[in-house]
Structure formats: structure tokens, C-alpha cells
């Protein structure tokens, strides 16, 4: 009996020879883990998505040997909006930035969209940046210069009250 490859038409003398041929050819939709051939690339990718036995990146249509390999792929690939602190991938950059805004555990500057390793790094960014409204007296950040100016008046009032308390009549 002759076994014929449905992908390229190659003829093999045994069923195991055909399976080996399909497994070894990169241009055949074959799952090496399950040792199964599929009728199309779409069917193979659906198999990867549906199977708990595969670690699969849906965006890139790539299979990874381990969960750690997939995490490194997410972390190192700019096409994947990924939070390294939470080890979560997001559907879009805007969803990732919303996650940063919503999660107090992240030192995130909403005004310029930057994430910092620590709160002290974020505060240093606010203090040293000319575009951010930051009060050096009390180490607080404000959403606008107008809000900062209004706040600064409270320091002037506090100073005046303190000075008047020192005056004796």
C-alpha cells in the first residue's frame, strides 16, 4: 500500500513513514506535541488555541515550550502590551495604560504615559520635569499649574499665620 501526503503529494511506503514526513516538514500543518496532522493551517492554529496542552501566542500564532517562554516573548516583544509587574498581557496599549492608572501598585505618570520602577522614581520625575506641576514644599503632585498655584497659596498662608503667632503685643 502507498500512503500519499495530502499537503505535498509525496508518496510513502508506510503509515509511520508518512507521519514522519509530515512531522519533519515545516511547511505542513502538523502538531509535533500531539503527533497529529491537520487539514489546514487554520485548523492547526485552532487546535493550539483550544488545547490546554499548548502554550500559544494568539497574536503571533507561535507555540512555546513553556509558560516562561511565552512570558519572555510577551515581555520582549513590543507588539504585546505587557505589564511586567503583574505578568499580564493586554489587548491594546490603551488597555495597558488604563491598567497602570487603575492600579495603585504601579508608579505611573498619567500625564506623559511613563511607568517607573518605584514611587520615588515617579516623584523624582515629577520634581525634575519642567512640564509637571510639583510642590517641593510638601512633595505633592498636581494635575495642572493652576492647581499648584492655588495650593502654593496655602503654604504662604501657613507661613503668614506662623509669623503672626510670633508677634507679641
UniProtKB/TrEMBL annotation:
Domain of life: Eukaryota
InterPro entries tied to this protein: Znf_C2H2_jaz (IPR022755), Znf_C2H2_sf (IPR036236), Znf_C2H2_type (IPR013087)
PROSITE patterns given in the database record: ZINC_FINGER_C2H2_1, ZINC_FINGER_C2H2_2
Record GO terms (molecular function): DNA-binding transcription factor activity, RNA polymerase II-specific; RNA polymerase II transcription regulatory region sequence-specific DNA binding; zinc ion binding
Residue stretches making up the C2H2-type domain: 3-28, 55-80, 81-107, 107-133, 133-160
A cellular component term, taken from the record's GO annotations: nucleus
Family annotation (PANTHER family): AZ2-RELATED, ZINC FINGER PROTEIN 142
Name the record gives this protein: C2H2-type domain-containing protein
Species: Schizophyllum commune (strain H4-8 / FGSC 9210)
